[in-house]
Amino acid sequence: MKKVIFLVFGILITAGSFFLSSHISDHRITESFYQAETKEPAEQIKKVALTFDDGPNEEYTPKLLDGLKKRNVRATFFLLGKQVEQYPELAKRISDEGHLIGCHAYEHKDLSRLSLEEACRQITDTNDLLYEVTGHRPMFMRPPYGSCQEQLPEKTEMIEVLWDIDTVDWSLRNTDQVVKNTLKKVEDGSIILMHDEFQESVDAALQLVDALEKEGYQLVTVEELILD
């Protein structure tokens, strides 16, 4: 009789241990699954593109390139064919140092006031020139004044890129004001319009790079911003 009692007691202890172990194991699995499901997503990197129009400029483009190289930052340069023709070595340096080159037409004319044929020629002549100098044909265009015929991008098989923030650096000619105004407006995905024709613009651009990186922004080219 005692043997039977001990046998039953042993079975009950074994069953209880199994149940408790199973319950704890299930609890741990459920808890691990819940934690995995509720894990916070990785923080998205904020990106912004600095763009420069009207170059290359013999005096100021090299200073800007030096500053960007020191900071390991790439920008986008919308070049005028007339300037490329005059300073081909600068256009090649821009390309060789990893910056993106876009077309800004041959001359700084309002393309919307030209015939479609002439506007296309302003773009294609510049693209041909850039190909000769850099070995690359631009994919992106920015018409002077941000104005062109609606059919122009399709006719030239290019992507038109305008801007979100116009720093008006060419008019202000004030480094501190340009930096202050831009930082007030900038947000993830902003395309900033500047020029590499003035010392104040170069200084402002490099100060913006430093300030934006401190705020967690990554400086990228227009291509990286739009197509990535």
UniProtKB/TrEMBL annotation:
Pfam families in UniProt: Polysacc_deac_1
SUPFAM superfamilies according to UniProt: Glycoside hydrolase/deacetylase
Ranges for domain NodB homology: 46-220
Tagged with keyword Membrane: no
Assigned keywords, A-Z: Hydrolase, Metal-binding
Protein name per Swiss-Prot or TrEMBL: Polysaccharide deacetylase family protein
Organism from which the protein derives: Brotonthovivens ammoniilytica
Species classification: Bacteria, Bacillati, Bacillota, Clostridia, Lachnospirales
